Amino acid sequence: MISIIYPNLYVDSLFDINLQDLKKQGIRGIIFDLDNTIIPRDQKYFSADIAGWLLELKEHNFKLCIVSNNRRQHRVSYLAQALDIPYVYKAGKPGRKAFRRAMQLLNTDVSDTAVVGDQVFTDVYGGNRLGLFTILVVPLPGKEFWGTTFFNRRLEKLVLAKIKKRLS
Ligand SMILES: [Mg+2]
């Protein structure tokens, strides 16, 4: 039962995600969490290396979408527009609705879509519920939403050790 919270892949950094491996698995669409996954929550602009990496994904014909629980539409839309990719804000992850919406936007389905996020209980659990390929990434440094720190991160600590053990 607990395997529903295990990611398929756990990486220290976005740059450790092997694009060739994703291609080989038939992944065509990638759903990205926003805050602390591709940009620190307290930053307004993408770092040059992350923006460059995301654009590289597009050049490799991956279709990208941002799915964020952030309720501030202007932040999510501004950043998605900077990359010229679609987005879903106020996503309500781990609910499945936003992931389904993202796959509609990408014209992909559960068999060829991956999710990349920094949180076990929203990104990974939500993606696993639908059977997506889930990639957990160590959060970018930066301030977090207080609720995340007090609830999800504490629980996460308990399971991360197990995840590392299982995936190593
Ligand atoms: Mg996040």
From TrEMBL:
Keywords: Hydrolase, Magnesium. Its cofactor is Mg(2+). The keyword Hydrolase applies. Pfam families: Hydrolase_like. Gene3D superfamilies: HAD superfamily/HAD-like. InterPro entries: HAD-like_hydrolase, HAD-like_sf, HAD-SF_hydro_IA, HAD-SF_hydro_IIIA, HAD_sf, PGPP1/Gep4. Coiled coil: none annotated. GO terms for molecular function: phosphatidylglycerophosphatase activity. CDD domains: HAD_BsYqeG-like (cd16416). GO terms for biological process: small molecule metabolic process. This is HAD superfamily (Subfamily IIIA) phosphatase, TIGR01668. The lineage of its organism: Bacteria, Bacillati, Bacillota, Clostridia, Eubacteriales.
